[in-house]
Amino acid sequence: MKNLRFFPVIGLVLTVIFSSCTVAKTPPSVEEKARELHRTMLTVDTHCDTAMSLLRSDWKIGERHDPAQRGSGKIDLPRMKEGGLDAEFFAAFVGQGPLTPEAYAKAKDSALRAVAAVRKMTQDHASLIGLAVDPAGARRLKKEGKLTAFIGLENGYPIGRDLSLIKLFYDQGVRYITLCHSSDNDICDSATDRRNPEDKGLSEFGRRVVAECNRLGMIVDISHASEKSFYDVIAASKTPIIASHSSARAVCDNPRNLTDDQLRALARNGGVIQICFLGAYVKTSPVIPEREKALKELEAKYGPVREIRDDAVRAKAMAERDAINKQYPQVRPTVADLVDHIDHVRKVVGIDSVGIGTDFDGGGGVVGCDDVSGMIHVTEELIRRGYTDKEIAKIWGENFFRVFDKIMAVAGK
Ligand SMILES: [Zn+2]
């Protein structure tokens, strides 16, 4: 009976052995599962404005920038690797200007400069990233352990009234055209042109633009387009279309987001909405009047910050904007708020019509995924909400690449 007092000790030893066995059998954590998924699936973000940063002399995409530092940007190649993002659409963005031959020529030059900067970047960093012009190219690069750069054209304005320029951009590697930006142009009306609220939709010239895109295998992107433009494009296009960076209007009431009826029309068309990370499209924040006033004054002084070409002036405007943000901080949306949009699209039209289009470096970023290194956290949230591996792979790229492949097949490429 004396030995009984050793029983607790033996019990403790057995408990330790048993629990160490269970540790070995612990299923992978959500993060490990997300990492494993990102190793196998091909991931794509269909919109960023980082091409503008490539034109700066003081910023290098091959270097890792600390996200906490101002001017670090949201995307560089080391952080793409960290976040598990394989392919990025770098948009050659041109702000809307006057509808005159001189202004068209300037816009074309500006777009071609941005396109050339993306091409040069892939040559300068050829061991890390390659340029792709089709889904097969991105798949091949992933197998080689490399990242992929695609090129988009944000705003059809640089083609002016000259249809032949669509082929010129196509030949330079551009694979989508966002038909308009924040104001109306020759192609179609914008969702956000406050000076001209009447919605005329797609113009006669715009119809020919869509037909030429269909013929070439250029993806038609209706992000920024007005509702009538959207429906006109759906009716005119022989192929599925995309919204490269828009979210769901029912979740966040912003004219840049798609209504449920638009989602249903997009799904019938076989297209895809790529959910945008820009705060104002993700969640409506409570209005702080002092903040609004200060931001309005800032814009009156400099114009839109992202369109400032002079580095020193832009730095000054950004510092002033930071000061406003500090004085009147806004509650920012989170990864969970973002995934609410994915949930909504899945609920309304199913899993086959939704993807990711961050708008990083164009205003995109949410708490928990404020730069490309945080992309993995979106996947973690999807896993936590019970999305299957197959569904997650569709969101991260399969849906978009299905559309891209289809567009190329229709064009006979
Ligand atoms: Zn945009």
Q: Can you walk through the features of this model?
A:
The structure is a single chain. The chain is of the alpha/beta class. It has 16 helices and 9 strands. The strands form 2 sheets. Strands 1, 2, 3, 4, 5 and 6 form a 6-stranded parallel sheet that branches. The chain has a 3-stranded parallel sheet with strand order 7-8-9. It has helices at 7-25, 30-40, 51-54, 77-83, 101-124, 135-143, 164-171, 204-216, 227-236, 260-269, 279-282, 289-302, 311-327, 335-349, 375-384, 389-410; strands at residues 44-48, 87-93, 129-131, 147-154, 174-178, 219-221, 242-243, 272-275, 354-356. Helices cover 48% and strands 10% of the residues. The protein starts with 6 loop residues before the first helix and ends with a helix. The protein binds zinc ion.
Low-pLDDT stretches are none
Structural class: alpha/beta
Shape: globular
**How many whole angstroms does the radius of gyration measure?**
24 Å
Q: Indicate the percent of residues in helices.
A: 40-55%
- Main sheet makeup: 6 strands, parallel
What is the count of β-strands? 9
How many separate helices? Answer: 16
Secondary-structure element series: HHEHHEHEHEHEHEHEHEHHHHEHH
Bound compounds: zinc ion
Strand proportion:
5-15%
Q: What do the pLDDT scores average to? A: 93
How far do the termini sit from each other?
86 Å
